[in-house]
TrEMBL record:
<dbReference type="InterPro" id="IPR043502">
    <property type="entry name" value="DNA/RNA_pol_sf"/>
</dbReference>
<feature type="region of interest" description="Disordered">
    <location>
        <begin position="54"/>
        <end position="73"/>
    </location>
</feature>
<dbReference type="InterPro" id="IPR000477">
    <property type="entry name" value="RT_dom"/>
</dbReference>
<feature type="domain" description="Reverse transcriptase/retrotransposon-derived protein RNase H-like">
    <location>
        <begin position="301"/>
        <end position="378"/>
    </location>
</feature>
<dbReference type="InterPro" id="IPR041577">
    <property type="entry name" value="RT_RNaseH_2"/>
</dbReference>
<dbReference type="Pfam" id="PF00078">
    <property type="entry name" value="RVT_1"/>
</dbReference>
<dbReference type="Pfam" id="PF17919">
    <property type="entry name" value="RT_RNaseH_2"/>
</dbReference>
<protein>
    <recommendedName>
        <fullName>Reverse transcriptase domain-containing protein</fullName>
    </recommendedName>
</protein>
<feature type="compositionally biased region" description="Acidic residues">
    <location>
        <begin position="56"/>
        <end position="73"/>
    </location>
</feature>
<dbReference type="InterPro" id="IPR051320">
    <property type="entry name" value="Viral_Replic_Matur_Polypro"/>
</dbReference>
<dbReference type="InterPro" id="IPR043128">
    <property type="entry name" value="Rev_trsase/Diguanyl_cyclase"/>
</dbReference>
<feature type="domain" description="Reverse transcriptase">
    <location>
        <begin position="82"/>
        <end position="237"/>
    </location>
</feature>
Amino acid sequence: MESKMVPKIPREDKRPERPVLKCHKCGSTSHLANTCTKKTKINEIQVIEGIQCTEEKEESDEDSAVSEDTPVEDYPIENITAKSRMVGDFKALNTYTVPDRYPIPRIQGTLTQLSKAKYITLMDSLKGFHKNILMAKAQRLLRVITQCGIYEYLRMPFGIKNAPSHYQRMMNTIFLTELSEGWLIIYIDDIIICSDSWSLHLETLSRVLHKAAEVNTKISLKKFNFGFQELKELGHVVSGLSLGIDKNKVAAVLLRPIPQNEKEMMSFIGFSSYYRQHLKDFAILAKSLYRICDQQTIFEMTQEKIKAYEKINKALTEAPLLLIPDWNIPFKLYIDACGDGLGEALHQVQIIDDKPTEVTVCYISRQIKPTEARWSAYVWYGHLRNYTIILMAVFLK
């Protein structure tokens, strides 16, 4: 039998193109930074911050976090107000770093788990990133310029692209057993213990502290919040009964002037959207603000947009407490719809002070897409759980 040779069809190379390497100092593609003649500028540092920078370096030397070195590749230092700490400006390095996609816990899931607990303890890992030793070839890429001289990191610093993902993976591996039991939450360097009883809380706390001691993880005493029934975390006030907005976070934003450009407006919208489950019809209120952030639109704060901005500010200051849902009793789902968006409010009738009281569980809203605006009326229905649906829009009745 004759064997027929089938010509091999070359497959299309679908691999992404490699980024063009260029010097991060001058932007040229003809050479890299180690041969560039342009000098790296040192950021201006006040004298008092320079002293704190020296103290930070001395504290880091205890764990051999940094060492003085002659640079081949170097980056300037960025300073953070309130508490000075050494953070390298690694933007150029992060551009060419392959991202680590290890998942960070969702904030909403963390808050939901926290809100079910009667007792909460919050601990912060002290200088946790500096517990990770760097390889020699990585140290050469992490040299920084300070007012005190030129240093290279020997341990994982702040500011590099994959540091949070790497640290989250390490903590999840260390506390794998405790995480699987459902009473422990780890959000990067925050360790949170949730319990329904005081005796159980003391037992679980002891387990976590012993495990931390075994792996030489230090806990910050300044950020140790032990056995609270109400705690501020992730911009919220969390207790075993309700979930509220941290008013201090809101007040700091409301003191700012009206946004004057697209970047400031996007920052305000992003902050407000973080609390959207507390804000009724947030998507509808913010629709006009989203529009002026479009790149094809000239940024202009008209009276309509200023009014929308003020309404969101008022909603943030008057946002209600969201009570924790009781999954054993029915829900009430209020539904509203208009040409600008959809809005829903999830309520329950719970017993508070021996009286049946209707409380808010959460608000949900989103904008109407251009295609959806041409659709006919919706038919709403509830399934899987027992809902009482209250229709607000006339055309849905």
